[in-house]
Design a protein that fits this description.
Strand content: 5-15%
Number of helices: 15
Structural class: alpha/beta
Largest sheet: 9 strands, mixed
Helix content: 25-40%
Number of strands: 9
Order of helices and strands: HHHHHHHEEHHEHEHHEHEHEHEE
Strand order of the largest sheet: 1-2-3-4-5-6-7-8-9
Shape: globular
Distance between the termini: 51 Å
Bound molecules: pyridoxal-5'-phosphate, iron/sulfur cluster
Radius of gyration: 20 Å
């Protein structure tokens, strides 16, 4: 990047969000110190930290309550010893993605839309992540300059919507994303570009002039599906980032995961929906946990999920009630759970 520039010059020309990403906390002790929590708190599972290290941007840490080990944002990023437990039914490919993975990082499971694993990188490592064991090295589209991805799309004109996912596509630089979007624009059968991203929530400075410029310039319909699980994640900076994204013509939705002790109450879900709406974002999916190894301690029973949904629907307007879904390998869509 930036050939011919010294490291200092590169640091000066680098977008602010990249510097913030590089300054993310990656050591458990550092996170505890930032929050004023004693270092001898719960034992850490070193084995799991090696395969899925902690990562959390400072701006997200700033939204956690100091000294509170039950803070709902802290719990999403803090490796509990229970991650090491082997729980029957919990595996490394909970949603059957590996079997469906094609060249160019393409996963085409549903009619008319295909998902592209654009990168393995994320701005935050969420402990419940269903892709925490994903072999990104084998799947990355970005490495092949998207050529293989585009070849797959050229071979199947039924795909009208391309979903950039990962990892997190907004961990990629704008030049890369813009080139890909431009390549999609030259293909008349492609109508929509969707981004599945948690970055505007955990690192709102990522929504900068460069990102907004290529989004606004694109002829594609844009749908941005954010990922926030708790109302406290949405502060004024995140709301401003959402407003800027909407100004490009993008439709903003949110998907959340139902997580034990994080958002498993009607109050927490109602607050999340209200805060999302305040930021111009509608709730889309509420996923029950994918059964991924190391995440069983986040599971909420289906009965409890249904109780929450019934109470939520009795309290909020219909457009603030997300669809409760489970991903079942082999099904033609996310499976709605009746409540
Ligand atoms: C979830 C998912 C989608 C998107 O599904 P929608 O119901 O349209 O949000 C697309 N492709 C794959 C592989 C998915 O897992
Ligand atoms: S941002 Fe999304 S893909 Fe990345 S670790 Fe969190 S849940 Fe997983």
């Amino acid at each position: 990047m930036d050939d011919g520039l010294s490291p200092t010059q590169q640091a000066l020309t680098r977008p602010r969000w990249q510097a913030e990403l590089a300054a993310a906390i990656t050591r458990p002790a550092e996170l505890l110190a930032a929050l004023g929590i004693a270092v001898d708190h719960p034992a850490l599972d070193a084995e799991h930290l090696r395969s899925f290290p902690i990562r959390v941007p400072q701006s997200f840490v700033a939204r956690m309550r100091r000294g509170d080990v039950r803070d709902p944002l802290f719990l999403q990023v803090w490796p509990q010893p229970a991650e090491g437990d082997e729980v029957p039914g919990y595996g490394v490919d909970a949603v059957g993605d590996l079997a469906k993975l094609k060249g160019g990082g393409l996963i085409h499971k549903y009619q008319g839309r295909a998902l592209v694993i654009a990168t393995g990188a994320c701005a935050v490592n969420c402990r419940y992540c269903f892709r925490r064991h994903f072999p990104y090295g084998d799947a990355l589209a970005a490495r092949g300059q998207w050529r293989e991805t585009l070849a797959q799309l050229d071979a199947d004109h039924s795909i009208e919507e391309v979903i950039l996912s990962g990892g997190d596509p907004l961990a990629l630089a704008d030049d890369k994303l813009r080139l890909f979007a431009e390549a999609l624009e030259t293909r008349p059968w492609i109508r929509r570009l969707r981004l599945h991203t948690r970055v505007p929530v955990v690192l709102p400075s990522r929504v900068d002039a460069q990102l907004l410029a290529w989004l606004a310039a694109s002829r594609l319909q844009k749908v941005i599906v954010l990922h926030a699980n708790h109302g406290n994640e949405i502060d004024a900076d995140v709301a401003a980032a959402c407003a800027a994204l909407r100004s490009t013509g993008a439709q903003l939705l949110n998907q959340a995961v139902l997580l034990r002790q994080v958002n498993d109450t009607t109050d927490a879900q109602a607050e999340l929906s209200e805060r999302l709406l305040g930021a111009g974002v509608l709730p889309y999916y509420l996923h029950v946990l994918d059964q991924v190894a190391g995440a069983a301690h986040f599971d909420v029973s289906e009965e409890q999920a249904q109780t929450i949904m019934r109470a939520l629907a009795a309290r909020l307007p219909g457009y603030l009630v997300p669809r409760l879904v489970r991903e079942i390998a082999g099904e033609p869509a996310k499976t709605p759970l009746p409540w």
